[in-house]
Amino acid sequence: MSIKIPFFKKKQKEEFQGELENVPRHVAIIMDGNGRWAERKGLPRVAGHKEGVHAVNKVVRAAAKADVEVLTMFAFSTENWKRPKSEIEFLMKLPKEFLHVYLPEIMENNVRINTIGEFEALPEHTKEAIQHAIDETKHNDGMLLNFALNYGGRFEIMRAVKQIVNDIDCAKLSVEALDENLFSDYLYTNGLQDPDLLIRTSGEQRLSNFMLWQSAYTEFWFTDVLWPDFDESVWWQALNEYQHRKRRFGGL
Ligand code: V0D
Questions:
Q1: Is residue 144 part of a domain?
Q2: What's the domain range around 41?
Q3: What Cα–Cα distance (Å) separates residue 192 from each residue in 80, 135, 143, 144?
């Protein structure tokens, strides 16, 4: 299957050393350091969020090129509601801005968009823009671009537990049938493979309530690079290091 990436530079592909072996099938990213990037430049925090949008597209392009199957980006956490109202309002306009600029390229690259998290609680205008993109891209069968929006890992697990209890109550499920695989079906990520690689930017080395259940065996890769400065070369560096790690899944 060939993926058309008109703006991809040949040089960057060569940095990948042509090794399409041992590519992570699912990459999850915590996009951290936008506010700090702006403060360092003497700009308001929101200027960092705005710049971060362009880094998202750089990674989408590079990940599709690397034949990654799922790319999950942590865009808004359940904890982010504690931020100033003005910052939240700004953030909620970014999906529409991103899609206005980049949806044509996403279509061209055969990328399908989806979300995980409590989608319904987002502002109407934000939901509309994202729903439009989900509908437009639903027949694409290339990479899945999965935005974690209003997502919290503990909430996701609690939500699964409540649905399971409910299904047991109404005899749709038996306690005996419940195992790790079936539990996974009750998570937002139902049907997706667990992340193979999790990247976090800006020097923080924590999971911060992101994909708690799913990252049991995930390789973590941290960088001091702030999210707005994340580009193709940082991406290939992460992939290269992942490719050289040995994964054991608890075995020998
Ligand atoms: C700010 C850095 C793209 C992290 C990236 C609503 C924080 C820029 C999206 C996006 C955000 C979401 C859904 C979609 C298309 C694009 C986005 C938010 C924040 C939170 F379908 N960037 N981005 N969403 N930032």
A1: yes
A2: 22-151+194-204+218-245
A3: 25, 19, 12, 10
